[in-house]
Write a structure and sequence with these properties.
This protein is an alpha+beta fold. Helix content is 22%, strand content 42%. It contains two helices and six strands. The strands form two sheets. The chain has a four-stranded antiparallel sheet with strand order 2-3-5-6, with helices on one face. Strand 2 and strand 3 form a beta hairpin. It is elongated. The protein starts with 7 loop residues before the first strand and ends with a strand.
Length: 116
């Protein structure tokens, strides 16, 4: 898991449900089996409750995966756990879409729903 140093700010419209979509199209990590780089896009969708994710800190958080050997499934779930834990959204979905390797593409989707 990358170092978690995420900043939040107060939701400017906490009484309204709305969706925030954040795209990270230049995401990189490392395959733990081959040591080769993996390139992909991470899409974060969420409905904020009291807090929103500050983007500069998110950028640095994502860069923490650059040299990390980790499988797609683990990193997608780790990102969801870290972000949902930090901002406590009403719901959140993290989708990772990786570029082809050996003619195969992979998409992983993980979701969080507040149990209130």
């Amino acid at each position: 898991m990358a170092e978690v140093n995420l900043e939040m700010f107060e939701n400017p419209r906490p009484g309204r449900d709305y969706t925030i979509t954040i795209r990270c199209p230049e995401f990189t990590s490392v395959c733990p089996k081959t040591g080769q780089p993996d390139f992909g896009e991470i899409i974060i969708e969420y409905c904020p409750d009291k807090l929103c994710i500050e983007l500069k800190s998110l950028k640095f958080y994502m860069q923490g995966y650059r040299d990390k050997g980790i499988f797609y499934e683990a990193l997608t779930n780790d990102i969801l756990d870290d972000l949902a834990g930090a901002c406590k959204p009403k719901w959140m979905k993290v989708t990772s879409s990786f570029t082809p390797r050996g003619g195969i593409t992979t998409d992983v989707v993980a979701e969080y729903k507040c149990e209130n």
